[in-house]
Amino acid sequence: MSDERPAAEPEDERVTDADAWARACAEDLAAEKARRRTEHGPPPGSAAEELKKLVDSVADKLSGLRSPLLGGLAGPAAQQVVRQVVEQAKAAVEPVIERNPDVFDHLAAAGGELLAAYRSAVQGQEQRWTARTADPADDRPDRRDRGEGTGPGERIDLD
């Protein structure tokens, strides 16, 4: 007997696309994004883009307001002054937003974290408040004089 093995028959080589998995994942992701867009609307932009939209909408609102305080005395002149102030504010804010868009993303993230910390603190305090018994004196058994009388008062040592 010989230790020689018969030559392995060549397996049917499958023709595979090395990027098929990546392509399928990309197609699934695109389909999911399209589904979410139709369900929830377009996703919000970056914090810088959202701030720019806010500045534009506030500027449009302020420019369109008629001043009830000035009445008919300085109507067109007052509106012109408001428009100038709004345009100056936009001219000052927009370059800062364009130069530092990442800063606003970081500020938005920090604000979210501060809000979460505040919410956690408030929820913890609310749980402590709601967990108390109806009689707050019962929470301090060491200070209550339980031996004398049945009233809710405490004994105060004046010495």
Commentary on this structure:
The protein contains four helices and no strands. The model has no long low-confidence stretch (mean pLDDT 75). 60% of the residues lie in helices and 0% in strands. The protein is flat and about 95 Å long. By secondary structure, it is mainly α.
Q: What keyword list fits this structure?
A:
159 residues; 4 helices; 60% helix
SS-based structural class? mainly alpha
Estimated helix fraction: 55-70%
**Terminus-to-terminus distance:** 112 Å
Strand content: under 5%
Give the number of helices: 4
Major β-sheet annotation: none
Can I get a quick summary?
The protein is 60% helix and 0% strand.
How would the blueprint of this fold be written?
Layout: H1 20-40, H2 47-64, H3 75-99, H4 101-131
